[in-house]
Amino acid sequence: MTPHGTRKTFFLIALLAVAAMVFAACAAPAAAPATGGEQPAAAAPSSDVPAEAGRGTDGTVTLVYWQEVSILNPYLASGTKDFHGASLIVEPLLEFNQDSELVPVLAQEIPTVENGGISEDLKSITYKLLPDVVWSDGTPLTADDLVFTWQFCTNELTGCTVQNFVGVESVEAVDAGTVKINFVEPTPYPYIPFVGYLSPILQKAQFTGCEGEAAQSCSEQNTNPIGTGPYKVKEFRANDTVVYEINENYRKADKPHFAEVVIKGAEDASASARAVLETGEADYGWNLQVEPAVLLDMEAKGNGKVIASFGGNVERILINFTNPDPNLGDKRSVWSPDDANPHPFLTDPAVRQALSMAIDRNIIAEQLYGPGGVATCNILSGPPTVVSTANDACLTQDIEGANALLDEAGYADTNGDGIREMADGTPLKILYQTSTNSVRQKTQALIQQWWKEIGVETELKNVEAAVFFGGDPASPDTLNKFFTDVQMFTNGPDNPDPQQYMSNWLCEINGAIQIQNPENNWGGSNVERWCNPDYDALWTTITSATGDARNEIAMQLNDTIVQNYVAIPLVFRASVSAHANSLVGPQLSGFETEEWNIEDWQRVR
């Protein structure tokens, strides 16, 4: 066994090159938006030499997120922006660099069979912690903190949204500086627990008492966690602004270079882009889901540059398999083992298939994403070794076929209003929600029109991103509550290996229900409320598979989701962001937060 980064050459390097080429092509005068003239050349900074290196020598760096940070405990978060916000503070043992290679963070080295870190039977992995690492409060990091973090997340009542501990039998502290992770079965790919931004270490002393039902009520801990990372919280305003200051106990004496980090909100993705590329109000703009012509016109102002990286993110429509009728009261969108509470018509695979067939993914990708997106028929769209070709027919829109399918299934427009009905007269009406964003609202409008052509009426709803992606169990508008018929957002793996990501559709893990419901504080990972024992059984086989067999199982898992129309994939998305010309250091990683190396970011003079 060797670390993932040394076993194979990863797809991300090639895709980064492709992304760079397509963005360069689009920025060239021949491909510039038709605005009536040649685009001005981008102005270069006065120098690309960083200012004198040293901790806190570069003042403040400002990041703009149009999806504002809501919480800083990644184990209770559901929005990517919250994982990003937390990654400046709490750290994992290992993470993925810009080349998708595993690199140590809080571990001394990457364990392998060869160096003795992985047992010969593949049932355990042992990490040696970096010596003398302390939390921001000055107390030492120990193996007990890792044991506690595992216990915190695996407590069913906590409502943990992260699945990095699936298949872990126990986590034990061998000594203060050594932690051993034991797996239920032989695990050929053990680099999931405590690896990457979804699985950092929490401080036991701070979070003791916050396990289980108490988790959501520990607001101080969840918004001001003690960490080992380069920064700590100075000020936290939920769904607005987070101000970070240097962790004076950070282990790298000459880093971070910025004394303060500000992550603030913006009205939308376009406003984020303008703040960096036009007005200079910010240094970094994240997740710029903006029409390509608009974004490139902003870049042409010369204040900054657009950067992009493909990992595994897919914009998709999720199907609610439960009934979201508000008249159901406490049963609204609630699944239980004793009552699946089925959706009136979306549990019919013919309806779900027709909805997929009616969509022209190529128009969405080309017109709304440009080089930042590619039409896809797969939930698992990267790396290439696990991408199925069995679903490529979805790339051709088929309105006629969708209508024929619904006709055959018995859905007819009996009153001539253009809307098909069920046998009992219930019309096929869908409430379709997503976050507030220009590209997403335009995608909604296109799909609304296509679904109208097959006799399905669609009401559109958009929710402020900070709320939609927030983890507040009291809010009716979060993606976890899923109080609509369908919803749309981007998701993707945080690990090039597919095992952990594909666990998100499991019905249960070790007897714990993964479908989001009130019993787990709307935590868990199965947003669609789809429970399929065959899928669960198939997923179990990937945990012990290796090589080509492992990749084949991953494709079968993808095909099961896609061919059952549990979710409808639309666009394989690049991470598109921008930074000011005066900022150096950002290096996108397809499987980490964009701030994974923020301690290395610097200001150029």
Task: Describe the secondary-structure layout.
Elements: H1 4-7, H2 11-27, E1 60-65, H3 80-87, E2 94-96, E3 102-104, E4 124-128, H4 143-154, E5 168-175, E6 178-183, H5 204-207, H6 219-223, E7 231-237, E8 241-246, E9 260-265, H7 269-277, E10 284-285, H8 292-299, E11 304-319, H9 349-357, H10 361-369, E12 373-375, H11 399-408, E13 429-435, H12 438-452, E14 457-463, H13 465-468, E15 486-491, H14 499-502, E16 508-509, E17 512-513, H15 533-542, H16 547-563, E18 567-580, E19 583-584, E20 602-603
Parallel strand pairs: 1-9, 1-10, 13-14, 13-15
Antiparallel strand pairs: 2-3, 4-6, 5-6, 7-8, 8-9, 10-18, 11-15, 11-18, 12-18, 16-17, 19-20
Query: How much helix is in the residues?
Result: 10-25%
Uncertain stretches of 5 or more adjacent residues = 1-47
Tell me the distance between the termini. Answer: 45 Å
Number of separate helices: 16
Structural class assignment: alpha+beta
Q: How is the main sheet built? A: 11 strands, mixed
Number of strands: 20
CATH architecture of the domain at 311-492 and 565-574: Roll
CA-based shape? globular
CATH topology of the domain at 311-492 and 565-574: Dipeptide-binding Protein, domain 3
Average pLDDT figure: 90
CATH class categorisation of the domain at 311-492 and 565-574: Alpha Beta
What would you say this structure looks like, in words?
This protein has 605 residues and is α+β, with helices and mostly antiparallel strands. The chain has a domain at 311-492 and 565-574: Dipeptide-binding Protein, domain 3 (Roll), CATH 3.10.105.10. The chain has helices spanning 4-7, 11-27, 80-87, 143-154, 204-207, 219-223, 269-277, 292-299, 349-357, 361-369, 399-408, 438-452, 465-468, 499-502, 533-542, 547-563, and strands spanning 60-65, 94-96, 102-104, 124-128, 168-175, 178-183, 231-237, 241-246, 260-265, 284-285, 304-319, 373-375, 429-435, 457-463, 486-491, 508-509, 512-513, 567-580, 583-584, 602-603. The strands form five sheets. Strands 1, 7, 8, 9, 10, 11, 12, 13, 14, 15 and 18 form an eleven-stranded mixed β-sheet that branches. Helix 7 runs parallel beside helix 8, helix 9 packs antiparallel against helix 11 and helix 15 (533-542) packs antiparallel against helix 16 (547-563). It is globular, with a radius of gyration of 24 Å. Residues 1-47 have low confidence and may be disordered.
